[in-house]
Specification:
- The chain has 13 helices and ten strands.
- It is an alpha/beta fold.
- The strands form two sheets. Strands 1-10-7-6-5-4-3-2 form an eight-stranded parallel sheet. It has a two-stranded antiparallel sheet with strand order 8-9.
- The radius of gyration is 17 Å and the shape is globular.
Length: about 290
């Protein structure tokens, strides 16, 4: 990634994979979200990755956010089948990249809270400490590290302890690098309340942490959050700007890809080196990011 970043100055990530899969007719029910389609419709995942590459993305993040061996075995698969599906997430992204003709593939490492499916990926209110989180992540981490991905994307991390646990696992796999991206509650703190600057500083000193930043966070917080990151390239891929209403279980607000692309230019000026989209962002958002940055 370093060489590509040095060549281009800024790299464009993909958008909301689950959003694209739903727009293409995918059924993401049942607690596994996009990981469900690793078994049920892998071709749809490959198509969604290809759509984002075609829109201008330089990097695709694999569909492993909610994938884990316990999650798959709880739904009747054998451990061997579960491990194969986790590896498949990277293979599908690689196939899409090759069909497109270039790009990078990041193995998606979602937080422990995503597997719990109880909203704790947005609070960091966990029942595991740092040691327990390292143990929980370890098997999937090593599977993804050996999958052929170009790097690891640790994303939507709500907990300082979880970030430390993932850094420990990165030390166990010296052949691969990673970015670490936090979910944040405001313009200063990650979801568990720890200041982002406090989380980012030790990660910036890690020799194989390629970038530190923020995702699955409202765009309005991005400029302030970028100011909390130093010593390492910054990665940002916020939500569309719509707000989720838990009472009505609906998104409120308007999706405006053009405004999102214009904001990406401001994020770049504020120091972001990797820019994309998270929930509710589409290939059109990525196309607009590419157009505004170019």
């Amino acid at each position: 990634m370093h060489s590509l970043l040095a060549e281009r100055g800024v790299l464009v990530l993909d958008g909301g994979l689950a959003t694209r899969l739903e727009d293409l007719g995918g059924d993401l029910g049942g607690g596994l979200w996009s990981a469900r389609l690793l078994k049920d419709d892998p071709a749809l995942i490959r198509r969604a990755h290809r759509d984002f590459f075609a829109a201008g993305a330089d990097i695709a993040v694999s569909a492993a956010y909610q994938a884990s061996v316990p999650a798959f075995t709880a739904r009747g698969l054998s451990p061997a089948q579960a491990r194969a599906l986790i590896a498949r997430s990277v293979e599908l992204a690689r196939q899409a990249r090759d069909e497109h003709g270039g790009g990078l593939v990041a193995a998606g490492v979602g937080p422990y809270g995503a597997a719990r499916a109880d909203g704790s990926e947005y609070t960091g209110a966990y029942d595991l400490d740092e040691d327990g989180l390292a143990a929980w992540h370890r098997e999937r981490w090593h599977l993804l590290a050996e999958s052929g991905a170009d790097l690891m994307a640790c994303e939507t991390i709500p907990s300082a302890a979880e970030a430390r646990a993932l850094a420990r696992l990165l030390d166990e796999t010296p052949h691969i690098s990673a970015w670490v991206s936090f979910s944040c509650r405001d313009g200063e703190r990650i979801s568990d309340g720890t200041p982002l600057a406090e989380c980012a500083a030790p990660l910036a000193r890690h020799p194989r942490v390629l970038a530190v930043g923020v995702n699955c966070t409202p765009p309005r917080h991005i400029p302030d959050l970028l100011g909390r990151i130093s010593g390492v390239p910054a990665v940002v891929y916020p939500n569309s700007g719509e707000e989720w209403d838990p009472r009505t279980r609906r998104w409120r607000g308007e999706r405006d890809p053009v405004a999102f692309g214009a904001a990406a230019r401001r994020w770049r000026a504020a120091g972001a080196a990797l820019i994309g989209g998270c929930c509710r962002t589409t290939p059109e958002h990525i196309r607009q990011i590419r157009a505004h940055l170019d």
